[in-house]
Amino acid sequence: MISKNINNKTDAAWSKLHNRLESEGLLEVKSERNIIRAFANSTALRVAAALVILIGATLYLSVFNKGSQTLLSLHNSEESSTVATTLEDGSTVFLAKNTTLSYPRHFDKSRREVRLEGNAYFEISKNPEKPFIVETELITIEVLGTSFNVTVSDTPMPSIAVNTGKVSVTLKSNGQRVTLLAGESGVVSSGSLKSIPTEDLEQFRLYMNRIHFKDEKLSDVVRIINKNSPELYIELAPEIEERLITATFTGNSPDTMAQLICVALNLNYTVQTGKILIHE
Question: CATH topology for 59-204?
Fold first, then answer.
């Protein structure tokens, strides 16, 4: 097993970023073409530094070999940040604090299966030929393409709330099975699984308040930004879509996030009607 512990220091990263901006002339030069803007005050610089590093958080990534299959285990021990990761099939998982997601590097031909310990929000890519299975200690969840929130930690009544689409939930203790539609939740209480209307709609949005990405493809990061910030669209030049980025966003506007991405990856951006184009 290979274990990786990422725990960076703010001051060192901020100092490194400041020196880089200063050496490249970005602290004083203002672009007349509005391609990239200078960060001339310490507040903006510290925000930019926060993009490059994960402040005060610890993220563990373990790699296992199980037969011919390579399994990955991602754990978020950060108290205030959601960790977002994109799986091989394009599905996105947002991990809450003290949550572990175990998944294969490559899914089987007939099914996509992961294991969850803790709480997480899932946005599943649709594939009718290849169902997506989430295994937890209490329940098994099967979906074709949907978004839903799983809450099994720090609660007396574990639940799954469906935001979009449809899921099938099976209680492992007795085999009871229910189908949930958007706006419905499955709750485990007194050894039974029951369907109720979802009352707490805020649970879905909470995952987006502070999101951390670790070595994610820029195209995946921008896709998530665009999905949750419909007011302004970010577009990438094809040659930079595969670039990797480590980033933490806290309620930033798309314009600010585009600026920070450019600083982190030494890119430029152009503001166009209704969108921002990021390019080299």
Answer: Jelly Rolls (2.60.120)
